[in-house]
Design brief:
single chain, about 425 residues, alpha+beta, Phosphatase 2c, domain 1, six-stranded antiparallel beta sheet, 12 strands, globular
């Protein structure tokens, strides 16, 4: 990179509404020396542990502590090699703990790491804790979910076969995580270019169970990072909060602190072709093959062969157009089997980031529902501050100032939560 960014960052981790302890862990580890900026940069981590009471918490803490220590101590110049080795060592450390204590056997944790350095941004991930990037009016999921559902969907897309597992029952099960096995495959991608205005989000599945990609993107883009982190976790709790929820947000600004996001065509999806293109191509291919048959019957071998080949080419093209259109609709792409080399960077999922009437009504409704609960259960919250925030939100909403309305409703919800007794 030819410029040094300024970063705004924040995190929030919460036990949720049903759990007794928080098995999530996260870390923000800033580059300790200016000289290390080019090939080390800053490190951000989210880990979601599993294995029962305190066991999952130990697994995620071991992962976070090991990675942030070893990453900056690594002798490798390349950050992608350093993060992979650090995550491999974290896996070995968790596995050793489990092997030495029967109560900790098969303990594990997801782990998603983001590096922002002079080379660009790099991600390393195992499990289903996600990494997103908001750019312009899009949110892209940069990490792949290592779950039965996602792996099965990808496999079936490649082979065009029927599902071979009960996705509804087992889809949430992880296919990879740190700890249960002595070795694990860590996905590392990058470095890729970051730009002023980019917002990166790392979060556990306690967030993504309750918030859509679009909602996460709208909140991360439109609110200051600290307020966005609080609001994302508060919404997850408001919608059920059955799991721990953790989020880390990082906003990139230029040297002058400007986070205005320039338009870029580098990662834009190709235009979506109309539905009628594929059947039109197939119809034309059928006519070519039919004409080839007629010419062959008339003993015009060379023109018949030419039309036959043309028809076959058009059939292949038609099926490719249909396949590519389906991929664009679902915003999911084939993976390179070799995770050490990513030739073309593409998101695994993508969504539009823009305020909609449905989003605003849902936020307004969430606030109203929480307010009714607070009054019914006599929560002790600062009513004066809450009422002021609510009034500002309603006024901004009426004036169609949706970013301000969202910020004020987020503030009002946070004030209500401050009085809740769990």
């Amino acid at each position: 990179m030819h410029w040094v960014p300024k970063l705004q960052y924040a995190f929030r981790s919460d036990v949720g509404m049903k759990r007794q302890n928080n098995e999530d862990n996260c870390a923000i580890a800033l580059c300790p020396q200016d000289a290390m900026w080019l090939n080390r940069g800053h490190l951000f981590i989210v880990a979601d542990g599993m294995g029962g009471h305190e066991v999952g918490e130990l697994a995620s803490k071991t992962a976070v502590d090991t990675i942030r220590h070893l990453y900056f101590k690594s002798s490798h110049e390349q950050a992608r090699i350093a993060i992979k080795e650090a995550m491999d060592e974290a896996n070995a450390a968790i596995y050793d703990i489990g092997a030495k204590n029967r109560e900790f056997k098969r303990m594990g944790t997801t782990c998603s790491s983001l590096i922002i350095s002079g080379e660009g941004f790099i991600i390393g991930h195992v499990g289903d804790s996600r990494i997103y990037r908001v750019r312009d009016e899009r949110i892209d999921q940069l990490s792949f979910d290592h779950t039965v559902a996602s792996e099965n969907k990808l496999r079936n897309r490649r082979t065009q076969s029927a599902p071979n597992v009960d996705v509804e029952k087992f889809g949430h099960v992880l296919t990879r995580c740190l700890g249960p096995d002595p070795k694990v495959k860590v996905d590392v991608e990058g470095p890729y270019e970051y730009m002023p205005g980019d917002v990166y989000i790392l979060c556990s599945d306690g967030v993504t169970k309750y918030l859509s990609d679009a909602e996460i993107g709208i909140i991360a883009k439109s609110l200051p990072v600290a307020e966005a982190a609080k609001f994302i976790v508060n919404l997850a709790n408001l919608r059920g909060g059955a799991d721990n929820s953790t989020v880390v947000l990082v906003r990139v600004s230029d040297q002058d602190g400007n986070s205005k996001q320039p338009l870029t065509k580098e990662y834009e999806l190709p235009p979506l072709l109309p539905k009628w293109v594929q059947p039109l191509l197939l119809s034309f291919a059928f006519l070519c093959i039919l004409a080839a048959g007629v010419l062959s019957y008339q003993h015009w071998a060379i023109p018949a062969a030419g039309l036959g080949i043309l028809g076959a080419i058009i059939v292949i093209l038609a099926f490719r157009v249909g396949r590519d259109r389906e991929r664009m609709i679902n915003a999911e792409y084939d993976l390179d089997d070799d995770d050490t080399s990513t030739v073309f960077f593409r998101p695994y999922r993508t969504a539009a980031v823009r305020f909609t009437q449905a989003f605003m009504e849902q936020i307004q409704g969430s606030h109203q529902k929480l307010l009714e609960t607070a009054k019914k259960k006599s929560w002790e919250y600062n009513q004066q501050k809450h009422d002021a925030a609510q009034k500002k939100a309603e006024q901004a909403y009426a004036e169609k100032k949706y970013r301000i309305a969202t910020l004020e409703w987020a503030n009002a919800i946070d004030i209500l939560y401050s009085g809740m007794v769990r």
